[in-house]
Fold acid phosphatase.
Amino acid sequence: MIHFAGLTLPLLVATTMMLVIQTAQSKLDEDVYETKHVAMVFRHADRAPDPVELFPTDPHYESEFFPYGLGGLTNRGKMREYGLGVFLREKYDEFLGPLYRPKAVFARSTDYARTKMCLQLVLSGLYPPRDEQVWNKNLPWQPIPTVYEAPKRDWLMIPEECPEYLHEHNKIQCAMSKELKGYDEFLEKLTSLTGKDMTGHNLTEVYNLYHILTAETHLNLPIADWAKDYYPHGKILEVTNKWYEMFSKTNRMRRLNGGKLLRQIINHMDAKIAGGDKTYNVSLFSGHETNVAAVLQVLGIYYPHVPAYSSAVIIELKRNVDSNEYFVEVIYRRGIPNDHQSLPIPGCDTICPYDKFVGLLEHVTPTTEELACDKDAPYETNEVEHVC
């Protein structure tokens, strides 16, 4: 064994490596970045069950879930989503500045009452009126405009409305048919337990079952005794996770799904870098857990789970003040619990050079043709029955 001043060779090598790592980390820590754009795709918060989720044996099958109504945002959910806006304000206060500036904010939601309400709640926490924008000293709120598309035309956030995406989904369902047959016995059992047909390899009814049980649990309502054997962990979650896997299984599906949101965000960041007059500082997309999952899948950082109420993917554009180079940092806020962490995309560091970020994701970024939705595409809505 070779010794250097009391150090063995392996220990000397390990010590040297640690010094190299610490030096590199110190260099990273010394770099000074300024935020240039913040994009966030987030899920609505706690809600009452949706009509499509109801099943005959549910203890609350006849409930109208007063005062929220079916699918309605609950008070607990309002507080949670408002807190998401406050989180953004605290994290980016210096970048945002004290006042709301109309041309600096892009705010879009899906055309659902709960997602439109959640967008307003996030904006309320993000931009409380200050100074000359205070118009009512008893109301710490100001109106901020938002946009949305009707579901049948919302190809940015609801891919299921595009025949082309459904065609790709049907192909995957067919390709996975042998694997999905392994769930047949469980699906038949759920059909008997719920009084609702749970069979079918698109797994959508099990997905709906998971979400109604989640909604009722967050309302502190008792769920059916049999459900406790499979929820919140167990077979119902396993099948639901399989549903999400099928949701963006291929790169083609990712381009037609979360890739469209990624393209929109990249467009906003490109405009910011180019320095045009009409550039946004903040881009907000208020949607569903499917949107959060789709963006995570496009970024290559999704892991099997159901994105929780008020979960969010934040994509931050940074500029190195010394080199004038641009970088991206991806942050995932889990919602429940409301912690957050930076996640490196595959092939890059946590602070990723912007051009490298765009290049690494080129294969899941849609072309101009893929951004459009051909509603007249010659695909049958029930083609899966003919192909499989």
